Please model this.
Amino acid sequence: MDAQLIAFTGVAAGMVAMPGADFTVVVRNALVSRRAGVACALGIAGGLLLHTALAVAGVAAVLAAVPALFRALQLLGGGYVLYLGVRTLWSLRRPRPAAAEVAGNTGTTWSAARPLRQGFVTNALNPKAPITFLSLLPQFVPAGSPALPRTLLLALIVVVLALLWFPAVALLVDRLGRWLREPRAARAVEGVTGAALTLLGALLLLEPLRAA
Model:
């Protein structure tokens, strides 16, 4: 039994499951439909795949070495999360259809592109992720063993954990969907998720501005 691999899996699971913009945007999409939530979850896993690939390639070191580039990506990521939050809050101004109407509108016109893109962009524009992986992955590479195969295995574990966790969140929200999609409950949940995304986006924007 590889103790280091088990330890890394535990640490990575905690990182993946930590509430944040990824979690909130999955919940927001899962309130629309199960497929939208799962598509968003797959987009987030795609973003993590990008980050782990960058860490393996060492590109994340460039972000650490060039503060201006790091801050620019922080601003882009924060701006996008803020946009999603404001858009969610703005949508509360419109009357919400009843749960039966929502269920009836999930027909053949549904497309995975939008929630998939939202999940991917939300995760991919987080510049802290590749630096976190760059600093974390080497800690679990045994001394004297080839670094590349081991690092690729660790990166794969992260992506698999995301593929398990975020679709599970989407399915759980959908499971509670009949109640959550009732107009009053749905507006309350959307208000909370919109406020959370707006706050997260604002914090992400303020951090690089304070550091400038």
